[in-house]
Design brief:
325 residues, mainly alpha
Length: 325
Amino acid sequence: MVQTATTTRAGSRSAAGSGSAVRGIVYANIAVFAFTLMDGFIKEISDVFPTGQIVFFRNLLAFIPLLAFAYWRYGGITLRTSRPWSHVVRGVFGVTAMFFFFLSYKLMDLSEAIALGLSGPIFITVLSVPLLGEHVGWRRWSAVVVGFVGVLVMTHPGAGVFDWHALVPLAAAVSYALAMISIRKLGTTEPPTTIVFHFTAFATLASLLTIPVGIADPEQAWVMPSGLAMSAIILTIGVLGGAAQIVLTMAYQHARAAVVAPFDYTALIYGFLIGAVWFKERPDAYIVIGGAIVVASGIYIIHRETVVARSQHREPPAPPLPTNE
């Protein structure tokens, strides 16, 4: 959910000249569907395994497709970096976002959690002003306000039925925004593969810190997977996550970010479909209308970033690879 890919500026320019926009859109939809399907599997096992252990599975097993792709495409990976602490900061925000996203699938309907989580780009716009020193014009601020209206519609706190569980995917969206801003800073000096592998390794190790929590709270204790079916689901979660990251990266190699990024919001459609078919969910009108408002706001923000970038004769900031799912 809430997931976009990173490309170098040179790569983005070359994609515009030689890449196929249609192929990029197809890849983006495949990747987003794979991420959303992975979310469904996570929800399926969320009552069996604590969230920290699911984060561990998701990242450790993602190394299978990621390493295979890196060695096939690039002949290996490089983890050398001159900015280790920047990777740590990005890792903390990314792991926090992933933890809250996965927890929200346990606490809420899948469609509701995904809809609220899609508010991430709105928070990116807000936080980019104090943290990146970016100038945001009145059009994007208007889109941000509209986006927050959409969030309020989904949570409808004035109706007296506000559920505190809604704060979990919103916390994930804020953490996601901070992680993406960290990647924008890292992306000026670090190659995408280095950022991805550093984060995946960090998330795998950081999730181990939740093991002691299970000692104090038996309900959070890690458990050994039992049965072939459960082991297959766990393997599928990791492989889907890693493969989706690869396919989404390929999408951004074939088309500009402004073309591909809006299709990230198809997660809302896939989330509604998977939730309805798999979990028999029936999202109410507040979720449908509020989600549509948030999506419209996010797409307009992407459009305005592209327009502003072109007026300044520069590439718009490429959205970063989603390691928060």
